[in-house]
Write a structure and sequence with these properties.
The protein is of the alpha/beta class. The strands form 4 sheets. A 5-stranded mixed β-sheet has the order 2-8-7-6-5, sandwiched between helices. α1 packs antiparallel against α9, α4 crosses α5 and α4 packs across α8. The termini are far apart. The structure holds pyridoxal-5'-phosphate (PLP).
Length: 371
Amino acid sequence: MLAKRFEKLSPYVPGEQPKDRVYVKLNANENPYPPHKSVAKAIAKAVKSNIEKIGLYPDPDSKTLRNEIALMLNKTGGVLGNKNAKLPFELTGKNIFCGNGSDEVLSFVFYTFFDSDRPIVMPEHTYSFYPVYCGFYGIPMNRIPLKENWELDSDKMLSEAEKTDSSIIFANPNAPTGIALKAQEVAQMIRKAPKDKVFVVDEAYCDFAEESCIPLLAEFKNLIIVRTFSKSLSFAGQRLGYVVASPELIQAIFTVKNCFNHFPVDFITQQAGIASCKAYDYYAENAAKIIQERESLTEFLRSRSWFVIDSKTNFIFAKKDGISGEEIYRKVKSAGILIRHFSTPGIEDFVRISIGTEKQNKALKSVLETL
Ligand SMILES: *Cc1c(COP(=O)(O)O)cnc(C)c1O
């Protein structure tokens, strides 16, 4: 009964959400702080005062929400965790495409811009949904190993992309390493990359870093930036992601969206998303707290002879000589705290720990102390 293409699928495995007991969840890079009160109000209003709207189709193009996202990016410079971030131009709603989580947005980007006639170039270790979509859409991949110091091998990625006239995609900061390239380093890459192919930067964690690549849109018409409300905007359960790019590329993604699902962002999510954008000051404070906790945890582990990669995200990627990643994960879990372990060859010694509240981190530190 199954289609032939079904046999090629290998689904993404998300961080576990167990129900057997209440865990401190530091395994899915969710935000430990709740959404702003105005978001709860917007949702309550959407279902109470506007109940008739639930019976009607929502705005298929999320127009008001896209304008609010552009406004938030203009006001924050595209980085909640850096008060000095600035954009050299004003974005408008025409630069934004919204979807049901950035996973869906990425799926539309893959469908819109990547062909089966050439591989897309990506790091060997990056967001593990990219290989899943390549399998889903039948797009070949060329996965470039990271350098010894866990950074992207940008020279090798560029020379491979040039050979096949290919697109490049990676997360910046990258996952699961947490390392960020500076915007100027990304600019150098785009200058040397194929001009007739899109260059995709996934900025899921950018609000915990120092710089966004959004300012580079002034120079590069082939740049696509993918972002999410899930991490810095405490919105993982509501599902909202977006693309920032030139209006021409945004229009192309709309065409694909309208061939697949006319209404990817429902009415309640649009209302709650608008309220979230307006509360950017609150989320910026939370990002600052998370950054502070990240630095504190990094220092704590390093002083106990752990190897911790410099992170610009809301998680750290760390390992310790003499104890396997799997064992760290199991011991921490038995103490009631979930962290993430990947059995992927090359990174199997590491654990990925999402940064929680100060209280959660204290609990975590006291467990790690016993290892
Ligand atoms: C979490 C994450 C996403 C997915 O975000 P959603 O909007 O929740 O689908 C995309 N890319 C990277 C690198 C991520 O870490």
